[in-house]
What does this fold into?
Amino acid sequence: MAERIKFGTDGWRGRIAEDYTFANVRRAAQGFARYLLENGKAGEWVVVGHDKRFHSENFAAAVAEVLAANGLRVHLTQGATPTPVISYSVVAKGAVGAVNITASHNPPTDNGFKVRDEHGGAIAPEGLKRIEAFIPEDESGVRRMPIAEAEAKGLVVRFDPAPAYIEHLKTLVDLEPIKAAGFKVLVDPMWGNGAGWFTRLLEGGKTVVEEIHNVRNPIFPEMKRPEPIPPNINVGLRETVARGADVLLITDGDADRVGLGDEHGEFVNQLRVYGLLAYYLLEVRGQRGPIVKTISTTTLLNKLGKRYGVPVYETGVGFKYVAPKMLEVDALIGGEESGGYAFRGNVPERDGILAGLYILDMMVKLHRKPAELVDLLFREVGPSYYDRIDTPFTGDRHPIEARVRNAKPETIGGLKVTGFRTIDGYQFMLEDGGWLLIRFSGTEPLLRVYCETTEAGRVRPILEDGLRIAGLKD
It folds into this structure.
């Protein structure tokens, strides 16, 4: 019997050639196929795409072979495609779901298997559990049709998803003022699927787009992993200053997340970016609607919600919680601490390309560069300081969990503890409106300790107290 395939926060990820093998990818595809068939989707279309990691296009073809053999039809992307483009293609093609071969921001040793629903969004936890349950114990339970045969029968059709997505973007943001603004935009696609997209979207005007790390290189040189946070983006931040750029836009490996560097080569953390995007929609564009946030992201959103009279809903960590809530409440914006943001009018999926365009449009509308935008936001709703420490662990996690769950600190980082929540992990609420969160990653063997506070000098003491609570620091 083969080992069990377990879906985490955003699908299944594994180490290439260890547990992430063609055999196991086919098993996962069989589980998804059966899930769709059990829901009456026989004969329907499924979108399948991939990133630029090692063998990703071949893993995607293996998925297509399994889906076709199970009586489903497949729109297979012609090349590496951003996750938000794959998600939009589900809607554009009238498909019933998608499979995306990507490990997103994971190290180069990994690959992954993301599944999406008929809305192009993440499948809710109960759906993921059903897919898991349908995965056969070994390859003997997998149906498979050779890709050439599937294409010859019209069950697998290759397509270019870019044109439809680009036309869709033009309905959400006017690109012409951005093209005419004369910005110098530096883009770091982190060797991933975001390469070429901002150049294509913004060419033909006074704005100049330059790129780094924009070819395929699955070992991801000059970074530990394609995750848009320091130190992975340090080269991009230095290049921003060296090239005199007005802004640095960073997309992760599959381009569903965005990172931001300001005109001084300083990183604008993802909580502040979420605050900026919400402020942009509420204040600059005058839109209204609920905000959905994971518990690990910023209280700037709660302050904005109060100011503009819109409700704020908090969920567990991961878009498998955010996407269903966005659909339920018709949210204006949804997002998480990792730098993934979704928007009304688009699919309920993180979109690093659209988020980057919204930042550029905000710069145009308010005549400010990124550092100036952050200053404006802080003048409106107060400051936010954040950081996170990730610590690998091996063995049983339960003793760590028990220690944190039973902790009763009166103060953390010198601030009084005012509350304790267990929505996802263990969150201690602090008297300044900030928080400390201790939780295990849903995709990797990591313990994450996060915090947000209103003074820069409090960040390190709060995180260190968090490590002590978890037993990782004396």
Remarks:
- The CA atoms of residues 171 and 460 lie 43 Å apart.
- The chain has a mean pLDDT of 96.
